[in-house]
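can u pls check wat happens w/ D-glutamic acid
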Amino acid sequence: MTSANNAPIGILDSGMGGISIWAEIVRTLPQEEVVYWADTAHCPYGGRTQAEITKLVTVGVKTLLEAHAKIIVIACNTATTAAIATLRAQWPEVPFIGLEPAIKPAARATRTGVVGVLGTAYTVQSEMFRHTTEQYAQGVRVIATAGNGLVEQVENDREEQPETENLLKQYIEPMLAAGADQLVLACTHFPLLVPAIRRIIGNRPMQIINPAPAIARHTQEVLAERGMLTARETQGSSRFLSSGTEHDSRRLAEKAAHYIATLTA
Ligand code: DGL
């Protein structure tokens, strides 16, 4: 056991979406320190090119490494799709955890043979997405929709506004009409919209697949395998950094505290 074990877990997102991953990591590994970096100044990533996203995420990774992160969770489907191969090549000694749309569990669970996926335009149009679908969803109809506008709603604390619910309806109703019984949340911002999504689904048989708990377990496994879990027995703390203003960092911390309280309520 070295002092490196007490170094923080680094989490990165374009903005506030990674809070959905942060919350499960904190619940799974309460003794760990966490440092979260949000690229608030450049959010959203979903409409950008691969080169732009890779450049931005590289800045985030450098910031987290300067904060001594022992592992980096790319808590963003878009950033993972665009940049994780480059990051792994650039920092082969750093363990990276990425997020890919949970097509496999959805394809296994569906009874109707129809699965809905809600992601950013970048993610659902990517080669990685096409590849994952071909590999894991043979014989399953996958309805992939770009949830344009939703990331901005979350960033601006508008999760409960009628226009957010209208956007969600526009994206989810066609999936329900086509018989989808699984909804894969393929953008980390979208778990923050679960209360509104549940209102739309109502009593129709659609299961929401939020990958966050599985990502937290995977982070724990990777740290355990490498002998990198902290030995600390007291509660760890979380630090929130942003490429935006001090105010943005404070908003992140507040939103994170609010979100985790809704999970434990
Ligand atoms: N939270 C992100 C994702 O998982 C990125 C959203 C965005 O910046 O467009 O895809």
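The mean pLDDT is 96.
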